[in-house]
Amino acid sequence: MRHSRFWVLAEDEFGAAYAHTLAGSTHLAALGGRTALEALDAGVPPREVWAALCDAMDVPEERRHGRDTPKRR
C-alpha cells in the first residue's frame, strides 16, 4: 500500500478533515504509542498503520478495503 492509498482509505472512512486530525492526534498502542502520522514518518508501512488505525477505531472488516464504487461503462 502506498501513502496515497492510506489517505484515500482514511478520508473515505472518516471524512477528509477528520482523517487528518485523527491521524495526527490519536496515539496507537499497536504502533508503540505513536500517531499514524508519526508512524508513517518513521517508515512504518502504510498497510500496518492503516490496520492499527482501523483496529483502534473499530472499523468493520468489510470497510477496511475502501468503498465499493460502481464501474463506469
DSSP E strands, number:
2
Q: What topology, given as strand order, has the largest sheet?
A: 1-2
Cα gyration radius (Å)? 12 Å
Shape: globular
Which key terms come to mind for this protein?
mainly alpha; two-stranded antiparallel sheet; 4 helices; 2 strands; globular
Descriptive report:
With 73 residues, this protein is mostly helical. 53% of the residues lie in helices and 5% in strands. It has helices spanning 3-14, 16-25, 36-41, 46-56; strands at 27-28, 34-35. A two-stranded antiparallel ribbon has the order 1-2. Strand 1 and strand 2 form a beta hairpin. Helix 1 packs across helix 2 and helix 1 runs parallel beside helix 4. It starts with a helix and ends in a 17-residue tail after the last helix. 19% of the residues are buried.
Q: Short summary of the structure?
A:
The chain is mainly α and about 70 residues long. The chain has helices spanning about 5-15, 15-25, 35-40, 45-55, and strands at about 25-30, 35. A two-stranded antiparallel ribbon has the order 1-2.
Helix-strand blueprint:
Layout: H1 3-14, H2 16-25, E1 27-28, E2 34-35, H3 36-41, H4 46-56
Antiparallel strand pairs: 1-2
